[in-house]
User: Fold tRNA-specific adenosine deaminase 1 from Stephanodiscus triporus.
Amino acid sequence: MHRRIAQCALDHYHRTLSSKNGGKPQTGREWTVYAAIVACRHRRRDDDEKVGTPKSEEGDDRCDRCLKDPGGDIEMWVVSCATGSKCTSIRPIVSSLPRPSKNYDCGIRIGQDNSRTHHNSGTNVTRDRGGETPHFLDLDEGSICKCYNGMVLKDSHAETLARRGLMSCLWDEIEHSLQLIRTKSTNDAAVVEEDAKEGCQTLQLLEACNISLDDHGPVSFRLKLGISLHMYISDSPCGDASIYEIRRGCDRQPQNNDTSNVVGDKICDTEINFTGAKIILSAGVQGWHTDRRNGSISSILTCSIVDQNATGDVIKQSTIALGREGTQQLGVLRTKSSRSNMAPDLRSTSMSCSDKLVRWGVFGLQGSLLAMYIPNPIRLSSICVSKDPRSVDGGSYGGQLAALERALSGRLENVLKTKTQTCGSEDLRPPDVAVVDIIYENSKTVSDNRYSEGQTFVKKRSTEACPAPSKKPKVHDAKKVSACGMSINWHQNYRANVNPDERDSNEATEITIGATGLKRGKKAKTPKDVLRSASRLCRFSFLRRCMRCTEIHESLSSSRHADVDVSTKKESIGDSSSPSTEEEVGQVVYMAGGRLRLVRRDDMY
Assistant:
């Protein structure tokens, strides 16, 4: 199962992510991390005929993207994928962007007024009802700075971008469902039924929940029954999951009482893989870590979090103590790796990918904004990682797997068990972890292993006697590859299989620069250029999409509250003697307290 998930993710990378527009690492010169979220649909063999799922036909793009097993029990496809290995601090990026004026509107409506908003070139311009002269909303300096902060991707690691691609896909589905209800709200039950039929013919992930009537909250969605989400990563996540034993070199000859690792007929030295992520030192444990008798922390670094306004004045500043490890510790929180000689205000404050995966395993992948519409956490069912060719365990990869189980499953198990006992919820289990023997050719571990083997070959050639003393032996030195500065993100449009023309515009890949967190292109010279340079996966983009869904709710609240209440009551009274099955279990749209909910008809009265 895990091997098929990895194969599906890598096939999608080679088939869908084109090399024409760049963004992919140059083989032999650059490395990167590739991550993908794969959806698996579990169903019986006869479900195709029941739900009307289209059968495999020649030229059907859906069948090309979906991987089915011979028995037809599992169908899998890539929902989102990304590459990247960079992160950045917000201060140097914001300081390099054009400084906006006080009256610049970053596209966020604050409060309610008697004006209407026009959308033009990604910005919102407010016009008075009585005149045609536009004026911008007067935002305070702190709001402008926060607006710029939300436009920058601070963490461009592949795991984070793949998760944000899933969030973008979920926003697409929610917005489409709400628009469908608003467009065809004359027959609410038929709207939901039609949307359900369309969802069977697409790669839709969400379905509306049957919930009881409430005065608060929007429509609720959940992951469709039978669908599970899995993540593939080309390398072990940075942080705690990357601490395991690896080979350092295989050029020594066996000696008496040699305790080095034996690989074939070669003797190899071993070492613990260095993650590079910095330990976060809290006040309670800082003294223990810095004790010279422990020797775990060789030096203490500081990381400054500075909140500035548009003029550069410091509003608030806080400092986090980070530890540079001499001996790597297990089970501790870390930030992303960075140079130790970097200035404190330039250091990234993003958590390591191992810690983020643990957090997503508890709170879900959807984030705080999507939790308004998806109250139940969406968790990963499994995480599979490609093998590290430097691992000392040979074909078993037990050390790498043990690190994954310790850093992910082990830390999650205790938290989820406590949550189950405290909240009385269903039995929660951590995701399964596995190491697969399929590799990504441009991964960091493969590149480092290729460099190590090349250096061993060069050393062997240099020690051999030259056949002709007058001529220098030609030795092809192995060059150490560097990290690719570009990041690619892709996510599905779940309606692309219904309309092929829509696929080209909505499923296009986006290329961002990891060091800046902005889209690749010309340097932004005006505030409008910054809006165009912002990635579709940034916080600002998600906020705008959340506000679009809120506007749909408000429009439905003002126009449909009284109509839906009166019409549904009349329908129930007029045909109360012999209600049909559709009326008993059908879903309707009902407005309560200005919020939209989907409820069963029999729950309304």
